[in-house]
Design goal:
157 residues, mainly beta, four-stranded antiparallel sheet, 8 strands, 39% strand, globular
């Protein structure tokens, strides 16, 4: 797709990475067609955020499985695959939580967002969550919000 005659549309997509009971050290992202680069669209990632269970108690997209427990946050990191390789590796999930926890819940969060500098050619189906120790033995999801720009051919005359 040539860069001329493109329309930029800002979008948001919630991805849920399911952490099954049998999870080992790495869990890949699900395939998300809205975030795939192809001949009809180019995706540029502006922001990534993670929602622990105090911000979203359960899965919205699947079966209502519990969301990321606070105790699991220190175990998990994000690996981003873009421009043909794992160029952003082991970003602690704690660095991507921007929702302040309610009183009496001790949980990490950031007041300033991580700068992703308009990442291009992200292959979300090759991105993954990596654990430094085995995750909990109960299934849960990690809700990850992606703010992105979708470039599509300009169809207006």
């Amino acid at each position: 797709m040539a860069n001329k005659d493109l329309t930029a549309i800002t979008r948001y997509e919630l991805i849920e990475v399911v952490i099954p009971i049998t999870a080992t050290r790495e869990v890949e992202f699900p395939t998300t067609s809205n975030l795939q680069n192809d001949t009809d669209q180019k995706i540029i990632v502006k922001d990534i955020e993670v929602f622990p269970n105090y911000a979203q108690t359960g899965s919205i997209r699947t079966s209502g499985t519990a969301n990321l427990p606070v105790a699991e946050i220190p175990k998990a990191s994000l690996v981003l695959y873009y421009q043909g390789g794992e160029w952003a590796r082991y970003i602690p999930l704690a660095k991507l939580i921007y929702t302040m926890p309610p009183a009496l819940i001790a949980s990490p969060f950031q007041q300033e967002r991580v700068a992703f500098d308009m990442l291009q050619e992200v292959a979300f189906d090759k991105c993954k969550i990596v654990f430094n120790t085995a995750p909990a033995t109960l299934p849960y999801v990690i809700a990850i919000g992606i703010t992105y720009i979708k470039l599509v051919p300009n169809t207006s005359l």
